[in-house]
Amino acid sequence: GYQFDEEVELEYYRLQKISEGSISLHEGYAKPLDGPREVGTGMVREENVPLSRLIDIINERFGGELTEADQLFFDQIAEAAALDEGLRQAAQVNPLDKFQLLFKQTLESLFIERMEMNEELFTEYMSNSEMQALVAAWLGRQVYSRLSGEDRRDHERG
Predict the structure, then answer these.
(1) Are 77 and 132 in contact (CB under 8 A)?
(2) In 3-state terms, what secondary structure has residue 45?
(3) Which of 7, 20, 65, 144 is found 20 to 30 A from 93 (Cα to Cα)?
(4) Per-residue pLDDT tens for 5-50?
(5) Could you tell me the sign of the dihedral formed by the alpha carbons of 143, 148, 154, 156, in that order?
(6) Residues 118, 73: contact at Cβ < 8 Å?
(7) What are the extents of the domains in the chain?
């Protein structure tokens, strides 16, 4: 199979019937299957990718030379976003796509607040709409995952 390092967007999908016929097994070819015994015991979780991966993707995609200091800058923004009460409430009651709309607005103000810390990165971010979209989507997922997950854990404890 293929392995992709980044997200892939499907533009076209073609469904075509190749053949028609029965797919049933003849008796004696397969052992009977038992149904599930305990339902709901398995959990699927997205693997959290560290923010340093974001730095790598930005460097690859935009030819940047971001460093560990820039990673710290993104870490600080993600932390500030996670402490934002408005974002916390939005993450608890909205799906990711709706949360991202509010997050993009908040993210820009967080960047502006920290402009003096890293003016070069700020300038690159503000002048590159592709980078804005990438950073907003990436950090938005991170913050949403953190905030919406906290809400579920709090309800389970209560």
Answers:
(1) no
(2) coil
(3) 7
(4) 777 777 777 777 777 777 776 666 666 666 666 665 554 444 455 6
(5) negative
(6) yes
(7) 51-157
